[in-house]
Batch of 2 targets.
Target 1
Amino acid sequence: MSATRFTYLGPEGTFTEAALRTLPEAATRELVPMVSVPAALDAVRNGEAAAALVPIENSVEGGVTATLDELASGEPLMIYREVLLPIAFALLVRPGTKLSDVKTVTGHPVAQPQVRNWLRAHLPDAVWESAASNADGARLVQEGRYDAAFAGEFAAATYGLEALVTEIHDAQNAETRFVLVGRPARPSAPTGADKTSVVLWMHDDHPGALLELLQEFAVRGVNLMLIQSRPTGEGIGNYCFAVDAEGHVSDRRMGEALMGLKRTCPQIRFLGSYPRAGVAQSDVGEARPGTADSDFTAASDWLTRCLDGRP
């Protein structure tokens, strides 16, 4: 395995690259752009890279399905870090292009919902076609295949383009969440401000089936931060569920919730416990009464005394 190489969703100039460069360890790694999320993750699976940074969630559009599906299938991988990056787009064009010249635009599919209103207001007749990434859209504009691309302003210099308009976003404070993914290993130590990610499958579709899964978290006081259904590929109506939950696998409430799910789910994939980006332990509220580790320990001690005949 190449311990000195990180891959990311490329080409150069993507928001993913910008997010990766915020990690201190990126300064000592070779950063290799890949053509797609599957390619970036497969490089980790086959030992060509130690880790990959890929987008997984956007505050406007929701989950990034390519990443969720890749993590739910194939050889298991684990999340070790997450990065939150504020997102604002620039309209990149070849030098000399005016707004009235723009008839075709491109960008990553996840970008379109974030600039839809701006497009409607300023370029109502422009035709949108999706690109593999925002930076790839910039490359296609450089090659003359499109008139403009929505990408990060920082990508303009890489592709010899100009930022015709900057700070484009339909939603204020839009951000994208990225995850650093590696091969399975022991999770990092809990910080007190952690997140645990899993993928869950149900035995069958019946009334209350999803509720049964959620109750494993709820009765133990585990807060869910994201739940998204994804088709399993086994026919209409067959879904698995990607879940982010507040807490670390070493927390008693989280561990017992996962054990309960393991008993009831035909398949569960643990994707890791890792620090929450931008959240300190002091920002996390107290556990609800009865859900702290000390409460689980006290309950276990009580049961032991009952078994010993000294309740």
Target 2
Amino acid sequence: MNGFDERFLTRNGLAARQLAVLLLNHEPDTRLPRVRDFAEELGCGNGTVQAALRLLEESGAIETAARGHLGTFLVRSERSILWRLSGLGTLLAAMPLPYSRRYEGLATGLRTAFEKAGTPFAITFMRGAGARTTALLEGKVDLVVLSRFAADRLIEEHPVELVADLGPATYVGAHGLLLREGASLDAPGLRVAVDPTSEDQRMLAERAFAGRSDIQWVESSYMQLRDLFAQNLADATVWNLDEVQGRTGMGGEVLPLGDEVTRDLSLRNSSAAIIGRTEGAKALSAVRDAVDLSTVTSLQTEVLRGERVPSY
């Protein structure tokens, strides 16, 4: 269908566009709901639904077949046409700056998986989970990529919901305790760097140094860490080791995190999660059904291994 068909500006056309959203969640060769069920969900008459289905068939978005008492089946659907007609537009996802191979691989996998699903998709990069969350809540982006730990907290506090959990080591490889060369963990008044924009990193640092009232907290970002250590302004931090290896290029000692609670928290921090606003539930459902998460993780692995050039 070239351009926008004016038939989709009529009452039947509006129903067809609403129906296109619902049909994004149906796989080929599956039985469709009854016309009256569609009519009830869309708040229109049976005749309007039937006309809307005809419009979608004429546009090449779907092909249906009546199979007697079994009902009407969706024989074929063109997701790219359905998505365009639905009016959902291009989904904009906010994710961390691509400063590590892991994030480059994640961006590459997401872009490819959405393309395969016939869903227009774009990525914007924002430093700090707080900034990405604000953009989502203000409607500036449709999806946000952050750690599963941060996602769980947001779901509890805001009208957002989980779209996908990509599993361990998809967000970060590991966290570790980074100690400046010449510093001692047992030294009183240990100066620990924390990133004010990263809820995950702050929580990990607080858990790692729980029980020590002598800690001096030094606010910094990963971009400042090398200078803080070199100028003897900080002694230690808990950090994403992908960032340490990719950016700091400095000496020092990397130690494992402490107790079981901290390790569990670190594991949840390692999993990439995608969240979206609850008000866009139908679009989120379409994304869940369409996007192949194994494509995302397999391409990310290829980028990490150097087998694929990042493309996002």
